[in-house]
């Protein structure tokens, strides 16, 4: 069942406190996921209290270091996909012609990885024997319905297939020589290291641009000459993502296929620079894993992102991420309910049918 979320007071908002992604975890923890996170959850005392925290507009030095580690994790997974899962990555020759023999493994790999990562993490947080112990850390104490989780898992699976299609297209362009790429990454090690550790940083402006563009551009009753394309895109495309106002890991890429393809197209940023395919694939992985773990709905033990949680609750704030604080620069940042202006809530006037939830 769905209920209407007006501009937005009728949503049962969480009286919770959380922090930026990775709250309560050391900066190197992205490299240990999920083992370190599961172990820390098991060992933590039942008497521990959830800390009172808030979102921040930008990252501190530790936050940037954590992001660099997460980007490096994505690159490591990309190398695994290219050199371990296969001994002949299609971009290096086989993809000169479109054949299911090399295309299907990419699609299967993406779907399997999606369910292994997002599926496992949702199970651990919401369904495993640990769920009662972890409930106190949930940013919204209401649990999402099974209908929402199935809906989000379905659309996220489709999004991962679309990401695979993007990779297939690039493999063909690289294999046919229509797009050049660097064969030996050690030829320019410093620039490649910079590309790798800043993956999340250089894709965030792209995310902000497409995301902000799919929200209303003008107040609801605007009579200007320029049509409100953002309002149209929100109604017909982006509102699907906002049905999950109480997100889980599977909500991360729960997107209309058009939006999903645009989201993963951030990986194309590095292509004109002739980067190695591993950097392109690492960006796709970072887009997926970052969205899944960042939408998990918990401030701990994972990387639940209260900054973006606020966007799901109030819609018209925090369009980007803290890595590149565009929202801070443009006045659309909010650290909590008190930071939501009447302008953010009332003037845009968007309505979204949202999934119902249930109490613990």
Description:
The chain is mainly alpha-helical and 360 residues long. It has helices spanning 35-43, 61-83, 100-127, 131-134, 146-175, 189-197, 199-213, 229-242, 257-264, 277-294, 306-314, 326-330, 342-347, and strands at 2-5, 143-144, 352-355, 357-358. Helices cover 49% and strands 3% of the residues. The strands form 2 sheets. A two-stranded antiparallel sheet has the order 1-3. Helix 2 (61-83) crosses helix 10, helix 3 runs parallel beside helix 10 (277-294) and helix 5 (146-175) packs antiparallel against helix 10. The longest helix has 30 residues, at 146-175. The protein starts with a strand and ends with a strand.
Rg for CA atoms: 20 Å
Overall geometric form:
globular
List the uncertain runs: 1-22
| Proportion of residues in β-strands | under 5%
The separation of the N and C termini measures 18 Å
Per DSSP, the total helix count is 13
Q: Report the major sheet.
A: 2 strands, antiparallel
What proportion of the residues is helical, as a percent range?
40-55%
**Spatial strand arrangement across the major sheet:** 1-3
Determine the mean pLDDT.
88
Number of strands: 4
Which class of secondary structure composition applies to the elements?
mainly alpha
Query: What is the chain-wise order of helices and strands?
Result: EHHHHEHHHHHHHHHEE
């Amino acid at each position: 069942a769905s209920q209407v979320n007006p501009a937005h007071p009728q949503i049962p908002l969480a009286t919770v406190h959380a922090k930026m992604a990775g709250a309560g975890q050391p900066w190197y923890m992205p490299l240990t996921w999920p083992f370190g996170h599961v172990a820390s959850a098991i060992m933590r005392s039942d008497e521990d209290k959830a800390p009172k925290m808030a979102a921040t507009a930008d990252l501190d030095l530790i936050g940037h270091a954590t992001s660099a580690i997460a980007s490096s994790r994505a690159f490591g997974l990309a190398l695994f996909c290219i050199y371990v899962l296969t001994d002949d990555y299609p971009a290096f020759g086989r993809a000169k012609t479109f054949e299911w023999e090399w295309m299907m493994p990419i699609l299967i790999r993406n779907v399997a990885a999606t369910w292994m990562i997002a599926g496992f993490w949702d199970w651990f947080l919401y369904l495993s024997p640990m769920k009662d112990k972890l409930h106190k850390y949930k940013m919204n104490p209401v649990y999402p319905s099974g209908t929402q989780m199935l809906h989000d898992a379905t659309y996220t699976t489709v999004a991962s297939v679309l990401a695979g299609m993007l990779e297939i297209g690039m493999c063909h362009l690289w294999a046919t020589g229509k797009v050049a790429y660097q064969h030996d990454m050690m030829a320019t090690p410093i620039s490649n290291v910079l590309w790798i550790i800043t993956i999340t940083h250089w894709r965030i402006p792209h995310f902000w641009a497409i995301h902000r563009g799919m929200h209303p551009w003008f107040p609801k009753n605007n009579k200007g000459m320029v049509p409100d394309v953002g309002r149209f895109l929100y109604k017909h495309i982006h509102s699907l993502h906002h049905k999950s106002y109480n997100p889980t890991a599977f909500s991360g890429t729960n997107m209309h296929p058009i939006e999903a393809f645009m989201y993963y197209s951030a990986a194309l940023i590095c292509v004109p620079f002739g980067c190695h395919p591993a950097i392109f694939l690492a960006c796709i992985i970072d887009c997926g894993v970052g969205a899944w773990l960042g939408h998990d709905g918990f401030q701990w033990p994972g990387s639940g992102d209260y900054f973006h949680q606020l966007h799901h609750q109030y819609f018209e704030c925090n369009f980007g991420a803290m890595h590149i604080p565009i929202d801070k620069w443009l006045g659309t940042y909010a650290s909590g309910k008190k930071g939501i202006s009447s302008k953010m809530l009332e003037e845009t006037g968007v309505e979204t049918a949202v999934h119902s939830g249930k109490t613990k």
